[in-house]
Amino acid sequence: MLRHEFQPGRLIIGVVLALAGAVYAGDAGGLWETPWFAVIPLVVGGLFLAGATALLARSRHRRAAKTDIPR
């Protein structure tokens, strides 16, 4: 039995925020130089993608629940 249902939107935003953290960690470590505003499009795009994915997953979950045969 699963403890909770899979939520792909949270997975996507987690990966995007980890990537943003890696970008700033690379800057702090001196591997490259990152302007302060460079991560804003990455995070905003990740939030949009995660929201769209969550909306799609929720609609598919509801559609599957409606057509499921009770046991």
Keywords:
71 residues; mainly alpha; 70% helix
Structure notes:
The chain is an all-alpha fold and 71 residues long. It has one domain. It has helices spanning 8-28, 39-67. Helix 1 (8-28) packs antiparallel against helix 2 (39-67). It is elongated. The two termini are 17 Å apart. The mean pLDDT is 88.
Topology:
Layout: H1 8-28, H2 39-67
Transmembrane segments: 35-57
Keywords: Membrane, Transmembrane, Transmembrane helix
Please provide a brief summary of the model:
Keywords: Membrane, Transmembrane, Transmembrane helix. With 71 residues, this protein is mostly helical.
| Overall morphology | elongated
Q: Report on the biggest sheet.
A: none
Indicate the proportion of strand residues.
under 5%
What string gives the helices and strands in order?
HH
Mean pLDDT: 88
- Briefly note the structural class of the backbone: mainly alpha
Give the termini distance in whole angstroms: 17 Å
Tally of helical runs: 2
- In the predicted model, the low-confidence regions spanning at least 5 consecutive residues are none
Number of domains: 1
Helix fraction, binned, reads over 70%
| Beta strand count | 0
Radius of gyration: 18 Å
Keywords: Membrane, Transmembrane, Transmembrane helix
Transmembrane segments: 35-57
